[in-house]
Write a structure and sequence with these properties.
about 260 residues, alpha/beta, 2-enoyl-CoA Hydratase, Chain A, domain 1, Lyase 2-enoyl-coa Hydratase, Chain  A, domain 2, 2 domains, six-stranded mixed beta sheet, four-stranded mixed beta sheet, 10 helices, 10 strands, binds 4-(N,N-dimethylamino)cinnamoyl-COA
Length: about 260
Amino acid sequence: MALLYEKRDRIAYITINRPRALNAIDPETLKELSEALIDFREDNNAWVAIITGSDRRAFCVGADIKEMLPVLSDIRNEWWRVPPTILRGLELWKPIIAAVNGLALGGGLELVLACDIRIAAENASFGVPEVTLGIMPGWGGTQRLVRAVPAAIAAEMLFFGQRIDAQEAYRIGLVNKVVPQADLMATAEEWARRLCEIPPLAVRAVKEAMIKGAEMNLEDGLRLEAKLMDYLVASEDHKEARSAFLEKRKPNIRGK
Ligand code: DAK
């Protein structure tokens, strides 16, 4: 299996599993990634996903240069021929945590950028070396990196294709936290469990408002926020959380 996918206690675990190619994404991996993400989106009992790589050296070194790049080149602008993922084509408002266990290069960094929370192991490193292959990031790197870090830093990384280490990634705000490799999954799980204690419809609405709103003018963004709020105030979890606060007890969150 190019990808491992399991679900435990409301958390979906997606592990890229091609260690002999440093977890480069070939067509099979991309298809399995798409299927896993769609299953996660559709499963009412799965509230948070963690994406990681199977081997301590690499999270993912991008598109497989031998197996995937020719397919992508052939597809050209017809991106809908590629299985939909969070890189492109799949709307998914549930929160996703990247647990970056090693190299995150090219499409691997683009996958990290498509996640909401990013935890890095101390040995992780990040880069977009596509220009050195005479191409450019094609899974959102030029768009998401410049939204994630200051423009001059994004330009430096995208023009030169050089790597930065985990501490630098933390300094520029690309990742939320850096931890020893041995603590990586436990830390990602702790964040995931904390997220599972928060009404999930509220978390999803916040993600949708943040991501869609970033592309809108302020007035349209405020309108979207109000619309999502209308939906949340009618939710069972909101009523339960409000009663629990007033009764000084823990809420029984059900995702409804
Ligand atoms: N693809 C396939 N195999 C790879 C690979 C990759 N990206 N990266 C590494 N490998 C393989 C190596 O070939 C080697 O396999 P064997 O020779 O042992 O069979 C094995 O992994 C170990 O690699 P190395 O022997 O090279 O190990 P080193 O420690 O010396 O170096 C490295 C590790 C990661 C620094 C080096 O392998 C490297 O520079 N790899 C290439 C990384 C890279 O350039 N990544 C960007 C790929 S391009 C598009 C959408 C998306 C994209 C393009 C278009 N459209 C919508 C049109 C995305 C493009 C990319 O991501």
